[in-house]
Write a structure and sequence with these properties.
The chain is α/β, with parallel strands linked by helices and 937 residues long. The protein is 45% helix and 11% strand. A hairpin with a 2-residue loop joins strand 13 and strand 14. The radius of gyration is 30 Å and the shape is globular. Bound molecules: adenosine-5'-triphosphate (ATP). It comes from Tuber melanosporum (strain Mel28).
Amino acid sequence: MENRPSTRLGNSLNGRHPGPRERQLPDNNIPPPPLLPPPPPQHERSPSTSYHAKRTSRTSGGTPPPKRPRTGNEEQWSRWSNDGGGRGELKVAPDWSGNETTMNTDHGDEDQYQRERYFGSNSTPTPSASMPPPSTSLTYRDTENEYSLAHAKWGLRREVVMGFSHCGIGQMYPWQAECLAMSGLLAGESNLVYTAPTSAGKSLVADILAIRKVVNERRKAIIVLPFIAIVQEKTRFLKKVLEKVRVAVPKRGRWDKANLWKHLNIIGFHGGSKARMGWKELDVAVCTIEKANALVNAAIEDRTVNQLGIVVFDELHMLGDDHRGYILELLATKLLCLTEANIQIVGMSATLSNVRVLATWLKAQFYECAFRPIPLQEHLVYDNNIYSYDEKLVAKISPSEPKELKDPVTNAIVSLTHEAVKGGHGVLVFCESRSRCEDVGRLLVKFMPAVNEEIREERMEIIRDLATTSTGLDPILEKTVPAGVAFHHAGLTTEERDLIAEAYDRGAIKVICCTATMAAGVNLPARRVIISPRMGRDFLSPTMLKQMRGRAGRKGRDTHGENYLCCRKEDLGPVKELINAPMPSIQSCLGGETGSLKRALLEGIATKLATSDDSLSEYMRATLIYHTTPEPLKYLKPKILDAIEHLKQMGLISEDRIQGYFHATGVGNATVASGLSPEEGVFLHDELSRALMNFNLESDMHIVYQFTPIHSSTTASVNIDWKLMREEVEKLDESGIRAATFVGVSPAFVNKMAQGGTLREDSPQNISKARVYRRFYVSLMLRELLNEKPVHIVAANYNIARGFIQQLSTTCKGFATISGTFCRVMGWTGLAVLLEHYSWRLDMGVKADLMSLARIPFVKSVTARIFHENGLKSVEAVSASNVEALVKLLELAQPKKLRLREAEMGKMRGRLEQRAAVILEAAVTIYEQDCKDAAEE
Ligand SMILES: Nc1ncnc2c1ncn2[C@@H]1O[C@H](COP(=O)(O)OP(=O)(O)OP(=O)(O)O)[C@@H](O)[C@H]1O
């Protein structure tokens, strides 16, 4: 039976009639009626009234295009592109010759359509490489509706328009069309900086500009996003939009008679990505900030940077980020200096206040609008009262009987969540810490509405999916998911987070309790968003609050979004300040600590953009800090001189006094080529030089140490538990101890620290020493992973978040590539080859004897070991096995399988059978390929 919060809104009205903004909830056991009356009008914007574009371009001004009745042609297009969109649904669209064509939006049928267009209806498919390109003709355009993506004005190829339509976008919002129509943008002649509220549809403007560059002009595009999750999401989106687009591969020699046609290469680059393609092959690179910077450096070094047509900076406010903002600034500065390459720069954000300064800096057109497709209702909640942001009482929440709901904030969270879920809506609850997410999740379970058998089964399916992940079923999720509640924070593995996000997206999970990282990291909107004003002990920043508030309201699913900022009465002062705080203006982070300036100068010198006094000052003039500092030269000059001196002392640059120019040394070039900061470059150089002299291959300890990412061994990411480290070091055999000594780790020092010693990081030597110990500590964890210990066991052993361990396993491969690049630029080819040789083991996460098996999908780590121990030692042996035998082994490999009840195990078996069938089929294919390869040899 459903357990409901005993809280009832309005109980405290004490007999008086609820006012128009107050509604009473019944006191019986009937589920509560809607908690809130309609929102205060001043916070509500309807899509039509909220359109308010403020255009301040330096070119001709413009008013929003007038509304006019839709023509028949528009109707056809919008039917084709906007509604339904299910696979295989028949749509009507005008064909390229202006006639009406009945066609099918199923991609398979689009192929058929193309074939028929070129070869007649009886033609058979031909290989794509020799086939003429898909429609490049612009004549089929919708000539009347300028908001339609098919309008000739936007110059998008038919396949692109179809791709967008497939993603639910057929028409632009008026502001998007107005922004794109600003002079010089479509022609790629001017840069663009624009700002619009969250969910306003900013991405489409940049996407259209990028796609035009790639498809129409055949230049490359880089799209820069701050977090891995959104890089992955954007890569998936662009792949879907551009799936059907083929472009000409230029003729290579005079014997090439005709152009070949290829699909576009859209590649996601981030710390954990294993992209095989590089700058040369890609068409669109969707990157994290660091990867984008490294790509541009490589392109400059290659002298192919003129192939780059556009760089899009999504979330431009990241410029102000203390840790990574300066890399964004540095990247934009380099692009501004590459005047001859003619690269279009596009930047956007929802939370910028000094956009004009940024537009001036980026030599960009500036566009600002306040459009929000889904109106927002915003509330402040304290002491069981709900107020509008202009302090009018909207409703009351009555106090509750249960002890755990005595606290008014918890009571409000539970009541508001219950009400939204009861109405069938999704809820995001932003909490102040990871543990609070889990606590609130557990509490909510008791008050979630009852659901039917079908939904219960769907949720059990999620439990089964979670149980088959590498970490097994989390005990808290096991309790919360059946009630439709989950939590989402950095402590979970990516696999878990993806499963939860996906289940929430399809409505199987109704509530996610999450930390602030989700506000900016994952695009999961909700009808109702409940927000704690704190992050840890501190209050949220206005930017973060804005991001969270903006998550309310799903385009296409909700008529409006609601957010509730729930605080304690004693926090009211600072919370009101927070609500009314203007968005902070973005400040450059380049001048803060000299580390960032050093990196900016090193990269300028290594890429030869700034080698002399003149070019250096030109380079510095292109930075944001130059534009935002009152007397830039006076302020910057001493800092620049200081940074240059440091770089010289670190051995990263040298100066030719006679010729009057700077150049990067080998280490400097290797540092820039590997995308490292000057400090990281020097540290890695020291580490690799030591390895070059003494490489210990007796056991895998030394090699694992070399693959441990140096970013995971900073103070911010890991704290050594010295007692634990002592235990682990004591377990090492002689070869392990020798490896430890080679890298600079002394067991005696570890013992001293475990007994209460201190290691003060007060000098460069001590900083470096602490770094080595931290790296070694992390390498012990990585070694366990490579020795097939499951992520959750390693995490538990080291009392560290599962997310950290899983990230470690995904980033070590990327770091191996970084080390390889470093060695190659240094000319240490032997070491580079050695690292490369061992790095492929990192892909598999298994010991050498299992490497062959690990080529089979789903046969990794523990599973591979169980297969091996049970006689399936090779791909051939697996290919000769059968589904039943494989299911038995897969059952053995399930972590924490006992957590699932008997009935659940039955259903899980079905899942394992499917998996076993895939394994068997893959093993047969791999084995056949191996035989073919052997025969050819
Ligand atoms: N013209 C359009 N027609 C229909 N849907 C659109 C249109 N433009 C954007 N969308 C959809 O609106 C949603 C939000 O768009 P988008 O992610 O671009 O917003 P945003 O302004 O970048 O928001 P945020 O600042 O939160 O990232 C997406 O699902 C997108 O597909």
